[in-house]
Specification:
Blueprint lengths: L1 H25 L10 H14 L22 H41 L2 H15 L8 H19 L11 H9 L7 H13 L8 H14 L6 H6 L18 H7 L5 H21 L3 H20 L4 H19 L5 H24 L13 H4 L9 H7 L13 H8 L6 E3 L4 H8 L16 H8 L1 H4 L1 H11 L3 E5 L7 H9 L4 E6 L3 E6 L5 H7 L13
Parallel strand pairs: 1-2
Antiparallel strand pairs: 2-4, 3-4
């Protein structure tokens, strides 16, 4: 009895500390200037107030009729309702709850497939992966529903619940189809378990599995875009003419950001999975690891090709890695197996504590949370997590003063046409629609390849093209996210700041606004023009 209580307490403390660390990672304040969230909220407002779902490039004046599939329109409606009732603070809390629920579902399944020790070990190993992409996005719903599907399907396979429970999946699929583009993984998971059911000793009728698969697949066609909406996931990673970081491969990002340890960590986890999978196959346990092998294999390839899938691989890594290891070590003596798992678990718990204590540790969310920017004197604190817990209520929401440039724009009645960069599109949609439309926004699928290759990029890298586009569109305002790291953005801003035709009138940590020297802007320029001495070229920009 004493041993049981000690073990239970140890497990509780370990999981509790891990959940605190994860909550800190998930609890990040929103940098609205680069986030998609503002656009999602505006999409939701359009649907609620005007019953409108966007089928064209609605927010832009450059290619307003370009066809687009707003596959995540349902997420916008949810975000809008939460934002309207509770503001950005409520949206942050809501999304944190989604990510924590997703983690707990995968963790619970891992424990069911192995033991607490295995689940904890693989949860800690996956932590940098699942926290690599925590910005408030529609894909959070995909991660959650992927976990729900996987948990329910495996619970039926393990005879923990009745097959009848799975008839909830077509209804969940209807929701998923209109929330995020990864809805295609719903029918795929069912198909995977259908195939696995064939060689089970006590298998469910194949007819039931087939019917469930087709029912769930057919539900995907219930979306505002019909068959086009169903096919969009297969073409979403096409060439846009504009390079998105989230769509780049691991190797590409590793070369671009060699100091980021995430990609090495991911490759190491791939190596771990490959090693234990080969050993399982060598021991002829392929039937028991079939589902885990296929899922991890598919998502590892997807993540290699597009880093946006690394977090999905990380979530699946928890139950699948635990299962593969548990199956591999199943034949070892019970005592020896427990000792090995205990040693590794203690080491992983050390990583969790290091994350809660250290400020520069790989497992620490301290830097990602921008805590020195949010909480005064935290840098002098011995235990940053203790100070953060005391100030827990101020952590969600938006980064400080992130809306000031938009307030400046509106208070001074500035006008377009606006030339803006890609990153800040969602921010301007949130603040300026319907008064102003934009040159570009962060929906690459809503613009033609020629627009990016022959207009947007050349006009920042080639002065003659800029002058020609300026004559064509008659820009009145330049509104940029200052930390745009594309090769052309910073040289363009330097040229405009020194251009006598333009006057910088506003700058903060996030944005810069320049106005054309003309009669419309004379009063504002006279009042707010910033001196050239305020700006300097920095190699760290």
């Amino acid at each position: 009895m004493i041993n049981f209580l000690f073990k239970y307490c140890l497990h509780f403390i370990s999981l509790f500390c891990l959940l605190i660390l994860l909550t800190f990672f998930f609890y990040q304040r929103v940098n609205l200037t680069t986030a998609d969230l503002g656009r999602h909220i505006q999409n939701g407002r359009l649907f609620v107030e005007q019953k409108q779902i966007l089928h064209t490039n609605f927010y832009s004046y450059t290619e307003p009729e370009f066809p687009t599939v707003t596959h995540h329109w349902g997420t916008g409606v949810i975000f809008y309702h939460i934002w309207k009732s509770f503001g950005f603070y409520g949206v942050s809390l809501f999304y944190t709850a989604i990510l924590l629920a997703t983690f707990l579902i995968f963790f619970w399944l891992a424990q069911r497939l192995s033991s607490f020790s295995y689940a904890f070990i693989f949860a800690v190993l996956s932590l940098p992966l699942i926290t690599s992409r925590v910005e408030i996005r529609p894909e959070g719903f995909s991660a959650l529903l992927l976990g729900v599907y996987f948990f329910l399907l495996y619970s039926v396979k393990l005879k923990k619940i009745s097959f009848k429970v799975l008839w909830v999946l077509p209804f969940l699929q209807l929701l998923w189809t209109n929330l995020h583009i990864f809805f295609i993984f719903g029918p795929f998971l069912i198909l995977l378990f259908l195939l696995d059911n064939q060689w089970q000793e006590e298998r469910v009728s194949q007819k039931l599995w087939v019917f469930l698969f087709f029912a769930t697949a057919l539900v995907c066609f219930i979306n505002p875009f019909g068959i086009k909406g169903v096919l969009t996931p297969f073409f979403i990673l096409k060439e846009y003419g504009y390079m998105l970081a989230e769509n780049q491969s691991v190797f590409f990002m590793q070369k671009r950001f060699p100091k980021n340890p995430l990609y090495i960590h991911y490759e190491l986890m791939i190596g771990v999975i490959f090693f234990i999978t080969v050993l399982n196959l060598w021991m002829k346990k392929w039937k028991s690891i079939f589902i885990a092998f296929i899922l991890l294999g598919m998502f590892s390839v997807l993540a290699f090709k597009s880093i946006r899938a690394i977090s999905f691989f990380g979530f699946l890594f928890i139950p699948c890695g635990a299962l593969l290891s548990f199956q591999l070590l199943d034949q070892l003596p019970f005592k020896r197996k427990n000792i090995m798992a205990g040693i590794v678990m203690v080491s992983c718990f050390g990583l969790v504590l290091a994350g809660l204590i250290g400020k520069k540790h790989y497992y620490s969310p301290y830097q990602k949370l921008n805590l020195p920017f949010i909480i005064e004197d935290i840098e002098q604190a011995r235990l940053w997590s203790g100070v953060a817990l005391k100030n827990f209520r101020i952590l969600p929401g938006l980064l400080p003063r992130v809306n000031q440039s938009a307030e400046f724009f509106k208070q001074n009645h500035l006008e377009g046409p606006i030339f803006n960069n890609y990153d800040i599109g969602g921010y301007l949609i949130y603040h300026l629609y319907p008064t102003e439309k934009l040159f570009v926004d962060n929906r690459p699928e809503s613009y033609s390849v020629d627009f990016f290759q022959k207009t947007y990029i050349p006009m920042q890298s080639n002065e003659k093209v800029w002058q020609a586009m300026d004559r064509q569109y008659q820009f009145n305002c330049i509104y940029f996210y200052r930390h745009d790291i594309t090769p052309w953005a910073q040289p363009f801003l330097i040229r405009r700041i020194t251009d006598p035709a333009w006057a910088p009138v506003y700058v903060d940590w996030y944005t810069i606004i320049l106005l054309k020297r003309n009669p419309i802007n004379t009063k504002v320029i006279q009042q707010y023009e910033l001196p050239q001495s305020l700006f300097s070229v920095s190699t760290n920009e």
